Amino acid sequence: MLVCAVLVQLAIGSVYAWSVFAKALQSDAAFGWSKSKAAVPFSVVIGMIFVGSYVGGRLQDRRGPRVVAMTGGVIYAIGVILASFAQSPDAFWLLVLGYGVIGGFGLGMVYIVPIAMLQKWFPDKPGLITGLAVAGFGFGAVVTAPVGQALIDKSPSVPTKAFLWLGIGYLVILLICTSVFRNPAVRVDAGASTKAAVAGPATTTREFTPSEALHTKQWYLLTAILTMSVTAGISLIAVAAGTASDVAGYSKTSAAALVGVLGLFNGAGRILWGWLSDMLGKMPAFMGILGIQGICLLLIPHAANAALFAVLAALVYTCYGGGFGTMPSTAGGFFGVKNVGAIYGLMLIGWSIGGVVGPLLIASLIGSQKAYNLGFTVIGVITLVALVLPLITKKPRHDGVAADGRDLGGNTPGRRGTRDTARH
Predict the structure, then answer these.
(1) Full-prediction pTM beyond 0.90?
(2) DSSP letters along 159-174, please?
């Protein structure tokens, strides 16, 4: 089941190869779009992930993972295939509708399912197991970037034709792999005492409902951390191929290959930081994730050396992936695993916000003048300022929770609760 979950994430993680398609769409031999216009479909697909993940999270908590994941997979594949019919510059709206709106919604539905499902199967290693679950998503660009470039090269004047074969491939993989998804026979009971079935770092004395989680300040702080991590990493991801060419002198082919290799670090970071968060604690992990991204983004526009550029970009990708490997288990540790699909699905609004703001902001700052120094400096400084967020984020006091949603932040005078420590 874990292998199938990784393969599912691998298929939908192809979205991270968008910079290869964006560069092709900007070519005068193709559609001649501006950098900002070429970033719109990617921003829309990331923006729609929140909607799909919220719907998918709620449904899989009630109906089970198989039907939700299969439905989302079909929707995602249809969206990608529809995008292949946007074969002229005037069909921009069709590319946004197919790849962005429809594809993004289906992607979100699929994405949330293995994250919630595997935490119920392996509650003793939440950071590591969710890191493994989403690692495939980060690895998606490794396969799609070179394959996508090869398909684009067959029809360089109409690069969107590549989406037809990609969409068909995604459909086959998703239908086969999601068919084995199921929840464990023994489900976590909200009122049950802590036992082996829910032992380990993610254990919580209270199973929050989505409504209750939304009444805590912790939900908003965690979502803000995710938003800033996404904004930082996805700003580079959206323009990685073009930046590699303009800053470090990569050729078109080598830039596409680099994007694929960087996908390895995106995927590996989800496993690495998930494991580190189990060892060091969630908030120290997020301090590292944000700090490293911020510093590297400040240095990237000055990395004229190809090797140095690759190292800095790899660190950003590793930390970006780490946010997704760490946050699901953090949500489970803060709010319980019973409703983590819906709760974390709601938190993915941070992914959508960052996914829209990051690419559009970096593209507008760089502009036609190729002002990479300005663009990455602004994003880097904002990311470093965000280091304050994990410093002020503490675990909810579960013994101060009322069923009607009162005192969910754990601020009841005279009552003592469990606080977040360096280790969960």
Answers:
(1) no
(2) GGGHHHHHHHHHHHHH
